[in-house]
């Protein structure tokens, strides 16, 4: 049913775009025949809007990866730097939450480790919506912030780092076999906000896959049993994402231009002082409105990274829409 709804939505969109194009062209012809410049201007405005919509849908059509249509987990981890980096990690968490909400996606907090004074040491959210992983997957990497520190009495400029990790939620159609003897299970008391029972029992669960070193944690439920089940689902998702990443790296091994697209590299800088600029180091995409970006305006960066990831030819197609 989900697949049917997705296809129906795409067909409806194409039909609507075609009809709106015909209507706009018809209005231009009518305005020119009747010598009505205002009608022509309105129709040309509709064509510009249509062009922008078409460009977005063309990029969305590139989301054809094996897991692009899945929901997504997103982890944020503060880098070295104590309170500064932990506050930056919380800002990133808010940025992605706002982006998801603006696109009608649902966001659920899975795990959070609060910082000592402010922010978070780490946090994991689940983003639910069509193509959630397809859009978010290009956000994995190290994010750098430059600003005047609100925690420094001398108001000095500080540079902070935080990492983002994105991986798909695996559904029943994807089978991931894990040897339970390869997994270490730890339980601990939940931190952060929550009900009395959440904070006073060892309900939180952390799973560590010993062969790969991959670790996941869940604390959003009062029941240790439920947290354990969610943690196992997250571990399967991480191992699946690892396999996808290995496949992608193998496929791109001969493409030197893409070797910088890695999960452990700095991908974007957010400069608030001494000037205002957000720059993606992979694509060159820039914005002089960092407040808007931090409030969830990420589409231009995601679209540019997606086009670069899939291939330069798609970039030419999008830029040449007339």
UniProtKB/TrEMBL annotation:
GO terms for molecular function: translation release factor activity, codon specific. It is found in: Cytoplasm. PANTHER family: CLASS I PEPTIDE CHAIN RELEASE FACTOR (PTHR43116:SF3), PEPTIDE CHAIN RELEASE FACTOR 2 (PTHR43116). This is Peptide chain release factor 2. InterPro entries: PCRF, Pep_chain_release_fac_I, Pep_chain_release_fac_I_sf, PrfB. The modification N5-methylglutamine is found at residue 196. It comes from the Bacteria. Residues 189-205 form the Prokaryotic-type class I peptide chain release factors domain. Belongs to the prokaryotic/mitochondrial release factor family. Methylated by PrmC. Methylation increases the termination efficiency of RF2. SMART domains: PCRF. GO terms for cellular component: cytoplasm. Peptide chain release factor 2 directs the termination of translation in response to the peptide chain termination codons UGA and UAA.
């Amino acid at each position: 049913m989900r697949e049917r709804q997705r296809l129906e939505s795409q067909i409806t969109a194409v039909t609507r775009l075609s009809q709106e194009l015909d209507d706009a062209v018809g209005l231009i012809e009518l305005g020119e025949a009747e010598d009505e410049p205002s009608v022509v201007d309105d129709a040309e405005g509709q064509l510009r809007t249509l062009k922008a919509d078409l460009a977005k849908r063309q990029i969305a059509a590139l989301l054809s990866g094996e897991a692009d249509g899945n929901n997504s987990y997103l982890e944020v981890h503060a880098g070295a730097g104590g309170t500064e980096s932990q506050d930056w990690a919380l800002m990133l968490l808010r940025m992605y939450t706002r982006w998801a909400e603006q696109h009608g996606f649902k966001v659920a907090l899975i795990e959070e480790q609060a910082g000592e004074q402010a922010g978070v040491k780490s946090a994991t959210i689940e983003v639910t919506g069509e193509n959630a992983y397809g859009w978010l997957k290009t956000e994995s990497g190290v994010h750098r912030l430059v600003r005047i520190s609100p925690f420094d009495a001398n108001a000095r400029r500080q540079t902070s780092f935080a990492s983002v990790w994105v991986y798909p939620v695996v559904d029943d159609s994807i089978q991931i076999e894990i040897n339970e003897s390869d997994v270490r299970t730890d339980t601990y008391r939940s931190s952060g906000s929550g009900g009395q029972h959440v904070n006073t029992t060892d309900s939180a669960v952390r799973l560590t896959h010993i062969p790969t070193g991959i670790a996941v944690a869940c604390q959003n439920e009062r029941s240790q049993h439920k947290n354990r089940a969610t943690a196992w689902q997250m571990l399967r998702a991480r191992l699946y994402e690892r396999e996808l990443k290995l496949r992608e790296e193998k496929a791109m091994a001969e493409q030197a231009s893409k070797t910088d697209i890695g999960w452990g590299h700095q991908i974007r800088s957010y400069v608030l002082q001494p000037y205002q600029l957000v720059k993606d180091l992979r694509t060159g995409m820039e914005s002089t409105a960092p407040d808007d970006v931090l409030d969830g305006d990420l589409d231009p960066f995601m679209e540019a990274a997606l086009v670069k990831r899939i291939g330069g030819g798609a970039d030419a197609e999008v830029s040449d829409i007339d």
